[in-house]
Specification:
The protein has helices at residues 3-21, 28-38, 48-52, 54-64, 66-77, 81-112, 115-137, 166-178, 186-196, 201-227, 233-261, 267-287. By secondary structure, it is mostly helical. The chain has one domain.
Length: 288
């Protein structure tokens, strides 16, 4: 097997990882850093590969929500109040990450893109998720931790996308800024941030999917613009393979996540994060 073929196989594998993890709260970037380090995948343009293959994932979610997305665009252009409010909320949630990312993303990549950082943020994020899930399920008089996994979010004030307020959207946007640290998870930060703000879990998940569209498209376009002259044919081939793998795997995951959150909490993902973070930390202490 030639080095070029092996490189494309690694790119395809990482594309699958990206698609499987982008829309569940376990950190796709964290997984790409961990698995990319383990399989010794390298790109001459640093982290551009990881960002650009996310386009495959975001196009998958746009395809799944294509009817609702078209309704949103058409309603906004024709002045439908509910659709205009939804568009406003997406812009409000998008702006904080756009501003912070434009200013600090280079420094963040230089400092935080390391498996050790990912291990820490995976564990911390998992613990926060467990705490938020417990709080959103408890009602006055409940025994702490006694809530049923299939119970609805009793305290949620926004149960549909149309009921989300601009203040709740801003809270989600601020939470998204934290996700710039790898291992935190963009979807995890925005979903949990939405739940803390009073948005029902399934609705917070759907809002996170829609917010991913401008956020991830913007990040990928920005990285391509800054590094297009540095990309070689070697890099472009790997990106194309990773893009396709991410698109196909994300198509499966998006639908599965929406079904899952209708009847379950995110506790299983929280425990997965904690377990993976511990495994990575032990691995680094023994072999790094």
């Amino acid at each position: 097997m030639t080095d070029s073929t092996l490189h494309l196989i690694k790119a395809f594998f990482l594309g699958i990882i990206e698609g499987l993890t982008e829309f569940i709260p376990v950190s796709s970037t964290g997984h790409l850093i961990i698995f990319g380090d383990w399989i010794s995948f390298s790109s001459s343009t640093g982290k551009v590969f990881e960002v650009v293959i996310q386009l495959g994932s975001i196009l998958a979610v746009m395809w799944v929500f294509r009817a609702r997305l078209w309704q949103l665009i058409r309603g906004t252009l024709t002045g439908v109040p509910t659709e205009m409010a939804f568009t406003r909320n997406l812009l409000v949630a998008f702006i904080p990450a756009a501003v912070i990312g434009a200013i600090f993303i280079k420094s963040i990549k230089q400092v935080f893109y390391h498996p050790g950082v990912v291990a820490v943020t995976l564990v911390l994020g998992g613990l926060i998720m467990l705490w938020v899930e417990r709080k959103t399920h408890e009602t006055p008089g409940d025994t702490p931790g006694a809530a049923d996994d299939t119970a609805s979010d009793e305290r949620a004030s926004a149960r549909t996308l149309e009921q989300i307020t601009w203040k709740q959207a801003l809270g989600v946007g601020v939470a998204q800024c934290v996700a710039m640290i790898p291992g935190t998870s963009r979807s995890g930060a925005t979903i949990i941030g939405g739940m803390i703000a009073g948005i029902q879990r399934k609705t917070a998940t759907e809002f996170s999917f829609f917010l991913a569209m401008p956020t991830m498209l913007g990040a990928a376009a920005y990285d391509l613009y800054r590094n297009i002259d540095l990309l070689s044919q070697h890099d472009l081939s790997a990106i194309a393979v990773g893009f396709l793998a991410a698109f196909l795997s994300a198509l499966v995951v998006v639908r599965a996540v929406l079904r899952f959150v209708s009847n379950h909490t995110y506790r299983v993902f929280a425990w997965y994060r904690i377990a993976l973070g511990i495994v990575v930390a032990v691995w680094l202490s023994l072999f790094a």
